[in-house]
Amino acid sequence: MPKYYTLALGCQMNKLDAEKLDALLQEMGFEPTHKENEADLINVFACSVRQSAINRIDGRLKKWNKIRKQRPLTTVLTGCVLPKDKKELGKQFDILLDAHQMHTLPKLLKKRIQDIEDIFPESDYFKLPTKHKSPFQAFVTIQEGCNKFCRYCAVPYTRGREISRPASQIVEEVKDLVKKGYKEITLLGQTVNSYQNPEKGNIRTFADLINTLAKIDGNFWIRFISPYPTDFSDELIDVIATEKKICPHLHIPVQAGSDDMLKKMLRKYTREEYLDLIRKIRKQLPNVSITTDIIVGFCDETEENFKDTLDLYEKVKFDMTYTAQYSKRPGTQATKLFNDNIPQSEKKRREVELNDLVNKYSLVNNRKMLNKTVTVLVENTKKESLFGKTDTNKQILVKGGSKDLIGSFVSVKVTKALPWSLEGTLK
Ligand code: SF4
């Protein structure tokens, strides 16, 4: 049996594509291995967005080239790869493949490795099955690529333009997962709520799609990441407020709280429009948890611009935030057009100041959960307790109960609130 080794760097999109590749290769008769030395096939999901990821691949190539001298080895480069990396790095691999062309891999491998089957002669990327790592949590791709062109981001150049997956395929996949006992299904797309069904029929928009998915029989949760603020329609808010299977947790990246910075980043909304959206959501979903992404120290960000971000933070009081100091990324418009002119020490100071607010409001919001009964999906055990997440996506440690409960929903009374998690007891 030929063996394969996969190195998946970067974000959730690459991780999910690596799970698709697992399913594809295992159906072709390959066996996974954690040891590069014994692999006949090495796959790399690159992340051109981070230079460190590209450097890491460069370093590993030396080792793989040594293996190649001793026995036959095929190497594949895919994932988020910028044109310049395709040129330079790509020539050191045997097969260079756009992620959405993964269904063509069997044919390409067949030319190099004998005794394997071309199992998907007429398939397409979206029809590829996925070998989910968890037996009760699954990611489902509904869209590939992005049309937004934020200036700090390389995704539209590495993954290409936005393509939505036919809704009939998504509905079938989710029905199948629910039938198999999956309890949490996360719909994935770069701007997931700009989804437009390419098929004719009743499902046209993202709101129509999750409305249909929420009506599938069974006890399961639906989540989605990441929505883009201007594509958040009133219909979508109505569906989330009505359908109990859709989790009341919304991760809505804002990136900055100053209009100058939003404009410079080419985000397509103003701070007031973002705040209006949050007000509208909270009016219909008073218990929703809202999380976000924020970049500090983007090109030319003044102290006043940064203060606007802090002010927006105080207004929204997010449940949690991923903060990042801006760093120049190859292949982005920001790198071509602007100077990365905020000193590192200043970026750090701003991030620390912002993180003080992040910690403060995370704790404030978590304290509101005290003594409430919440539903938790148990994911694992930790320190002799159960560990899981609430529908609002808060991490919680649960006292009592056995590991047989992993993968089930349980009712928990919240007894303690910490900045980054909750504690509770089984009811
Ligand atoms: S919305 Fe902006 S940040 Fe997100 S993937 Fe598209 S270009 Fe990148």
What does this structure look like?
The protein is of the alpha/beta class and 427 residues long. The protein has 3 domains: 3-110, Methylthiotransferase, N-terminal domain (Rossmann fold), CATH 3.40.50.12160; 125-367, Alpha-Beta Horseshoe (pyruvate-formate lyase- activating enzyme), CATH 3.80.30.20; 373-426, Nucleic acid-binding proteins (OB fold (Dihydrolipoamide Acetyltransferase, E2P)). It is built from 13 helices and 18 strands. The protein has helices spanning 12-27, 51-70, 83-88, 105-110, 155-158, 167-179, 206-214, 234-242, 259-265, 271-284, 303-316, 333-337, 344-367, and strands spanning 3-8, 31-32, 41-47, 74-80, 95-96, 137-141, 143-144, 163-164, 184-188, 221-225, 249-251, 289-296, 320-325, 373-382, 385-390, 395-399, 409-417, 422-426. β15 and β16 (395-399) form a beta hairpin. The protein is globular. The chain binds iron/sulfur cluster. Iron/sulfur cluster binds at residues 146, 148-150, 153, 155-156, 190-191, 228. Iron/sulfur cluster is lined by residues 146, 148-150, 153, 155-156, 190-191, 228.
